[in-house]
Structure formats: C-alpha cells, structure tokens
Write a structure and sequence with these properties.
Length: 334
C-alpha cells in the first residue's frame, strides 16, 4: 500500500521514508493539504497530514469522495480538523498524542532568553562590527516569577527549567500537576498570574474556551515589563490586541513561535512575494518581538517520535486496532 504524506519538510522526508521502509511505500509532498490540493489524494486510502493542514468540512468531503479512509496527522494538536464531519464520513483520524515535551519547553525558553537579552539585535550589530551595548540591557531571571499557563508535560518541563533558574513559580490549569507543586509552584487564578508574573509562557491547547485567552483584558493586566512567550497555538493570543499594547511601549519582550493566522504562511517561503497580513507585518517590526515559524517541536528527537507514532497509527488502522491516538474511531470495512 502507498501512503500519501502532505506538508513534508525536507528534513523530515528521509526520516519518514526510513520509518516506513519495509512496511509501506510512502509518497512525500512538500505541498500542504488545502481545498486546492485535496484532489491529489484521490485513490489513496491513507494520507498523513501536518499541523497546518486544512481538514475542514470541504476538504474532508473531497478526501472521502476520493477514497481516503484514514488520516494520520503528524502533530498533537487537532484544532484544524472538523472531527464531527470526519465521523459522519466514516473517516478514521489519528494524531500523535505524545512526543518529547522538552523540545517545545526548551524552545520556549530560547525565545524568552533571546528577547530578554536582546540576542537578535546583538547578533545583527556584531555582524556590522558594531560592538556597543546600548539597548542590550537585560535582567536576571533568578528570583523573578514565571507564570505557566497549562502545566501538562510541556508546561512541567518549562517549569523545571524555570526552577533551575531559581525562579518563583505560578501555575494555572484545570488540574494541578503534583510534579509542579513539588517544584514549589503555587496554583492561582489566571488574573493573579497575569498581574504577578515577570515571564508568562503558554502551554494550553486551543479550544473554544481558550481562544484568545490572552486578549486585551489579560494583556492590560500584565506588568509593563513582562515577557510573554507562546509556543503552543496562535489562537491563544489576540494578536491585534497585542500589537496595540506593543505600540504603547509595553513589555520587555514577546516571543511567538505560533500565530493565529499562520496557515498558508508558516512553512512557506514568502520572501519574494511578501504577505498581505497587515497584523503580522506590523508585529515583526517591533524590536522587542521575535516571531518564529512554528518550529518549537522541530528537533530530531521529537520529529522521530512523531514519525514513529504515525507509523504505529497506520499499522493499528490496518490491523483494526484502536489506541489513545485515535480521535475518530471509524474503521473501514475489511
């Protein structure tokens, strides 16, 4: 059987081909799954998609009409998938429920320290042989307060690093993580966390209840010199509201690895044609902001685990087995 994989990065392709070798043939495409590219999947019973795939109603209908019966998404998040429509169409959908939480937590800290210590500006200067320190003043993290919204595996890993810096820990989640409380984390309501944290990092899933969790009200409640990091999902932050706060001169720094309108932009080279997203264009002009293209998970360790789980999801589907990775449990008639 040949499997069609959409949105495969050049670094991923040899890893995917090696993982499927001896099991199934795999055709890797660098194009992402959209309404325009969905017809390519005609005749493929199994496809694999990336986190920025469009798996809305129209795309799912096209896939089902073309004979697709199983979708193996290579990510943990699944807010891009209309699960109700997938179930109605009897499509099996699986995701990767776990991969290295350290990849994302470490990258979140990379963003935090880069904006705190003005690394991008410093590197840009030294490349021009400008070795002044003006404008590069940072601050110690030791003794300050880290606020962690979402204390699951990734939030816990982030908190462990914060603990290593000697920071005070505040947490917010629907349930307390004993491993975090053992680090000395105090769970508070999010309003208190916004008001007291010097560094705020987001590690919650994107759900209707968390859409724009960081909106105008939350942003206004934060310290003027706070650092905000989002390596989870772009929709957690109201970007327009964030831009307004930045224009007012607030925040020491903002590190964003995700953006609420990233689909169609991230993972694509727009350097020649440019973009028509005025909000993103304005956001990247602020000297205290770093935007990266949803790469926090992108380590050899994490990507390898994601691919291995994807292979297992396909194997389980063909064997008629279900696992915790399955989002829509439909099985094909066999």
């Amino acid at each position: 059987m040949e499997i069609l994989a959409f949105g495969v990065q050049s670094d991923e392709k040899p890893l995917i081909e090696k993982a499927f070798a001896g099991l199934h043939d795999v055709r890797c495409l660098d194009v992402f799954l959209t309404e325009d590219t969905a017809p390519i999947a005609a005749g493929y019973e199994i496809i694999s998609t990336s986190v920025n795939a469009d798996l809305g109603s129209r795309v799912l209908q096209t896939l089902a009409a073309g004979g697709t019966q199983m979708i193996a998404q290579r990510s943990t998040g699944f807010n891009n998938i209309d699960l109700d429509v997938a179930e109605r169409l009897a499509l099996r959908v699986a995701r990767v429920s776990y991969y290295s939480p350290h990849s994302v937590a470490e990258f979140a800290w990379t963003l935090a320290m880069a904006v705190n210590r003005r690394i991008v500006r410093a590197v840009s200067r030294t490349r021009d042989f400008d070795f002044r320190l003006d404008g590069l003043l940072g601050r110690d993290m030791h003794g300050r307060t880290a606020g962690v919204l979402g204390t699951g595996k990734i939030g816990e890993a982030f908190a462990r690093i914060a603990h290593g810096f000697g920071m005070n820990l505040l947490g917010w989640d629907v349930a307390e993580n004993p491993a975090c409380t053992a680090l000395g984390m105090t769970y508070v309501d999010k309003e208190q966390l916004f008001a007291e944290a010097d560094l705020i990092s987001l590690h919650v899933p994107l759900l209707p209840a968390t859409q724009h969790l960081i909106g105008a009200e939350a942003l206004s409640a934060m310290k003027d010199d706070a650092i905000l990091v989002n390596s989870s999902r772009g929709g957690l932050v109201d970007t327009r509201a964030l831009v307004e706060e930045l224009r007012a001169g607030r925040f020491t720094g903002v590190g964003l690895d995700v953006y609420e309108a990233e689909a169609g932009l991230f993972y694509v080279d727009k350097s020649v044609e440019g973009i028509d997203d005025d909000t993103l264009a304005r956001l990247v002009t602020f000297p205290n902001v770093i935007v990266t293209s949803h790469q926090a998970y992108y380590t050899r360790d994490a990507v390898g685990q994601i691919i291995d789980a994807t292979v297992q999801n396909v194997t389980d589907y063909l064997a008629g087995r279900r696992s915790d990775n399955v989002l829509v449990p439909a099985l094909p008639p066999r």
